[in-house]
Amino acid sequence: MKFLNKIIHELLAQNTDLSAFNIILPGKRPIVFIRQILEENNYSGFLPNFFTIEELINTIADQQTIQGIPLWLFSFDVYRSLNLIPRDDFSDFLKWFPTLQKDWDDILKFSDSDQAVLQYMFDEERIKEWAQDLGEDDDVPRKKFLNFWQNMNVFLPVLKEKLQEKNWATTGMIHEAAKARIVDFAKNTKEEFVFCGFNAFTPVEEKLVRSLLQWNKAQCFFQADRYYFNDERQEAGKFLRNHKTWKEFDDDRAFQWIEDDFNQPKKIKVYEVSGNVTQTKVLPEIFKEINNKTYSNTAVVLLDENLLPASLDVMHDVDNLNITMGFPLKNLSFSNAVKRLFYLQKQLEKNKLSYYYRDVFPILEELPKSVEDEQIINDFKAKIEERNIVYISRKLLHELLGGLSYYGLLQKATGTNGYLDMLIGFCQQVKWLEIDDIQYENVSHFENAFRIIKNQLTPYNIEIKMETLEILINQHINSESIDFQGEPLRGLQIMGLLETRLLNFENVILLSVNEGKLPLGNSQNTYIPFDIRRFFDLHTFLENDSIYAYHFYRLIQDAKNVHLLYNALSSGVNTGEKSRFITQIEMESSHDIEHLIIENSSEPITTKPIEIAKTHIVQQRLQKWKEKVSASHLTSYLYNPIDFYLSKILNTSETDEIEEELSIKNYGNLVHYSLQEVYEVLKGKVLKESDLKSSVKAIDEYINTAIEKLKHQPEFYEKGMNYIHKAIAKKVIENVLNHDLELIKQGNKLEIIDIERRFENIDFPLEGNDKISFFGFIDRIDKLNGTLRIIDYKTAKIKNLNVKIDQDNADKYFHNSERKQALQLCIYHYVVQHLPEFWGFPIETGIWSFADAKMGMVSLQFDKGNIDDAMKSVKSLILEILNPDINFVETIKTY
């Protein structure tokens, strides 16, 4: 820590007792390093006093800071009392006040008079509209903006007065109050102040420093470098060049220090990386280049705080890590769950009868849970998925989740106060669970926020709706972060850019050195236009760019190895453009810069098909499979051998997923089950016209029975696409019944023999004494004019039912997935031939497609060959499945 060492040696040369000094720092981070330096120098006296400059300003102002939720509530109470138009409720007030408050603080910090700026904003709006007739309607955007600044000229002065009565102050008001007291403070204080490593000051801070210098009660140590200090074009030196012109720096008091470190030999590497998270994957390779494996002189600087989890993942081999940065609350699972809880409350306002499953599932997944809660949640999800319940009734939710420890949070809140109590109680309960430290901090932040809201609401008669409470919480989530603390004197330092102030490292690695991250650019959230900010000397994005430029150059000026990584991919708000600071170094510095292009390090998706060998265990499973072979097994193998292996050999099954729209599979099941119910009643009868007409009238009843069989809720079919699917299913069933009715009207004799006929143990010989046994279900067996018809229902269209089989192609004829419908019918034909009850009847097999139900059954035709030839091809397919030398190889579908 070269700069800090230099300061300490300078102060020790002036006075061996450092307790005489008050050391003022930009942040508290360097204090621990100063203590280490004193220890290394065998200093045994009292430590100096340490302050940030904000703490010193606060001491001078002697007012209590108010910010965040307490300030918003107090300010709304004042706004409401003024009866300004529009009369915003608290939720509307929160949409504009936090941004306005930041602007107001800026005005108070940087301008001479906040009222002058507010009046200027109002006057400018009046000038813009002087020749326009805005009418009487207050909702016209231009008029709303004019009224807004008119209101602010009334509201903010009253707010300031009310806050002063309580001796409360925003950060801007503290600066304003300190400004009037600085001269007396500098004149009367007996303390000695040392300002270290500052760059940009607010006017009040500058006045404080200069006043103390004038009274010889302070000294300043700046960390400047000739590279950017002497070059007027370099924005990094903008503020320091201005400070050097202060009259307080003269022959007796030199401006300290301007060094020449940036131009010393450095190894700078720029990495163009394809992807944001991919940057973190480069870190292990960079670490290999660092000789000191304790990494005690290495800093990883994350310009995008969202990369922290991914960075930690790749640093698992680093023994000592110290994180010195905040991680946004909004990116943590508990924060998402809290947001969803409030969203659920809003949805319950709209729909008081049921819960949408997508509103409930994420909450249950993301909230920390006990073992007992986890079991309740797993059972709940299994039942909801099994029954495909999209909208869960309150009764069913209570039945399935009533035992959940935080069930009350999922119910419609009777009031915000009671709901806050439940949230506080839940947070306390969660902290007793086995959760990680980050989750614990996250929960603690929320418990504190809920308590603050509850306590702060008490003095005010403000009606807080659930929507308002949600806005309050979201404002809190978006503005808060978890600050990590660790052992800063050991190991690798992971930091944000602002945390690097005053610190120097030999190896510096910066991630996300992109335009928009470094510098941030014109991303200020403000109501005050750029030209007005310039006119009143308020900071704009240009000043902020200069501040970031200084931090960047100061960090690398003392480093020997600099690694700059940026994301070259354009996605979302990221333009994929490297920071202009990289370009500046490339164009203007004397350093040789090595450029590397890093493609995404993940392997490309391979198109090589999966292949499973038929090991001894697989062959054992196949022998077991031979005892119960169904036609669908063989069609599954034709479609994809790996699917066959997974479902029939490993006995895996697809997980249940809730369908918001009826799937093709379940649409087929709905029609199928309905037809089963229809013809089950008619089984064993020679059909009459009256039978079928009665069935047509009762279709709705049969469909409802089928819905129960599917374990679906009736409400699932009440609206949207599912209503249409049900109507189409009804039409298909009508078409099937009408087709049969037409056959009878034409004088045909139709008898329903069986529905969903189960068969098993139908032996089929292979080679030698080897055999397999067929089993399965035939959808419908009927007799039309004495011919036995074997009918299979299909949702898909009919194809390839004309079989052309001979000795040349018999072996491989059914080794084609395009012929799987014919294959299935051939197996059914073979099975029925071997059922004694059907011996002697002529047999016809066919498909009845729901896609064209009016056509009726389309029969399997043998244009060449017969059923015996077809079964030879079936045998060939079965032998291939059983052949130990032929692996299961994935069929890759081309689209």
TrEMBL record:
Pfam families (alphabetical): PDDEXK_1 (PF12705)
InterPro entries linked to this entry: P-loop_NTPase, PDDEXK-like_dom_sf, PDDEXK_AddAB-type, Restrct_endonuc-II-like
Every PD-(D/E)XK endonuclease-like domain range: 629-886
Gene3D superfamilies on file: 3.90.320.10
Signal peptide: none
Protein known as: PD-(D/E)XK nuclease family protein
